[in-house]
Amino acid sequence: MKKISQGTSETSNEFEIEDLKSKLDFVLNELDKQFKLRERELLELKKMEEKYANLEKRYHSLRNSFLGKLTIKYWTFRRKLTKKK
Hints:
By secondary structure, this protein is an all-alpha fold. It has one domain. It is 96% helix and 0% strand. It has two helices and no strands. The longest helix is centred in the middle third of the chain and has 63 residues, at 2-64. The chain starts with a helix and ends with a helix.
């Protein structure tokens, strides 16, 4: 009797091991997908930050130029005129 109970317990242990292995594979695949997704998001964020820094630099250069300052004063004056009406 002892042999029969050991055989069924070994079989059930093998099924449990296979079940755990399949669950582990599933979790590893999901983790890999999430990692790749986050990596793509970080690369996209880096590109956007570079674009923002470039635009900010161009904006400050334009605003500090002679014609840029003149344009800003013009639009400030126009804004004040429309608010008074």
